[in-house]
Write a structure and sequence with these properties.
The protein is mostly helical and about 130 residues long. It contains seven helices and no strands. Helix 5 runs antiparallel to helix 6.
Length: about 130
């Protein structure tokens, strides 16, 4: 799933990249052997997929964010493959925290831009009469 996510991203196929991203997270839930977590993730699959698609469209447009997310996914994968549950847990928490903070910042940037565009021109560009 991780490799597919990278390949679809490199091919600039956001829909398939999003699907691979969701499947990556589902595979992590499956690897946990936690039936409650897995059923919850499967139950929210459609919501998760639309959320991931929207988030990826916003975050992956910026190369530094893309690189960080890829690194976070890789860290989770390597920790799981190594059987290091604590490292995997910490990597997942860092990833979720980063995604949350990044989306919040992007939302704030959009709101800030919307406020600026609603300001009258004389507030944005003061007239020369006041000089």
């Amino acid at each position: 799933c991780f490799d597919a996510m990278l390949q679809f991203t490199e091919r600039d196929d956001p829909d398939l990249a999003s699907q691979a991203d969701v499947r990556f997270h589902l595979a992590i839930a499956e690897a946990s052997h936690n039936v409650v977590l897995l059923q919850t993730m499967r139950g929210f699959f459609d919501l998760l997929q639309s959320s991931v698609m929207e988030s990826r469209q916003r975050m992956y447009q910026q190369q530094p964010i893309f690189a960080q997310l890829t690194g976070q996914h890789r860290e989770m994968l390597e920790a799981i493959e190594a059987g290091d549950a604590e490292r995997a847990r910490k990597a997942a928490l860092r990833h979720l925290g980063f995604v949350h903070a990044t989306i919040k910042q992007l939302d704030e940037d959009v709101a800030r831009q919307a406020r600026v565009t609603r300001l009258p021109d004389d507030v944005i560009k003061p007239s020369r009469e006041n000089d």
